[in-house]
Amino acid sequence: xxxxxxxxxxxxxxxxxxxxxxxxxxxxxxxxxxxxxxxxxxxxxxxxxxxxxxxxxxxxxxxxxxxxxxxxxxxxxxxxxxxxxxxxxxxxxxxxxxxxxxxxxxxxxxxxxxxxxxxxxxxxxxxxxxxxxxxxxxxxxxxxxxxxxxxxxxxxxxxxxxxxxxxxxxxxxxxxxxxxxxxxxxxxxxxxxxxxxxxxxxxxxxxxxxxxxxxxxxxxxxxxxxxxxxxxxxxxxxxxxxxxxxxxxxxxxxxxxxxxxxxxxxxxxxxxxxxxxxxxx
Length: 281
What we know:
alpha/beta; Rossmann fold; Ribonucleotide Reductase Protein R1, domain 1
């Protein structure tokens, strides 16, 4: 979803309904992809040519920093600008606390309430003519409600539950074109969120710019920020965030091993098929 194509439109006299044929797919500028859910070691494309990814998290029940780190890594791996939108500000006593927590991990954070209208204009400004934005986040954080309020889509939403969580409504990715020409992509909540690694740089963790900057000041170039002397990271980063960094780093290492193994297996199968074909010829 999100590819730009060159089409040849047929006249109604020829096709009867003004149909068109795709002649060319333009090169992708950005690409949002994750590892498919489950045990399969395969990528699952989510969206292409996205300019900004809006990670939505609700202020009342959903604000989990480790999950935000995963979304940030997913977007930065794809070359996409990340923004965090903290929704449902009207449901918490002190919105500033929720926004401050999100700012600990995100470069840009916007507080939003579709009930009061707070933040809608700021989020809307992320889109516009020639730009594509994708909404990401857990089920029930208000992605569809935000689009309804911002650009006038009419997606079905449900009432807030007794525990103040939203009810999941979006079951597939959907693309909407706003009146100003901006493109908005709504996505369902993802229960599994594992990054599909760039084979050219599988060890580069993209979600922790603050840790990467501090790591340059560590005594040792290969500091793992665990027990090494002269570590500039451990004293400056909260234990919660550092634990998230180590967890994702371990997952990336394991994922890189699995992807490499899968690549070797596919190469071996291709070699066997090629050899069998040469014999048959």
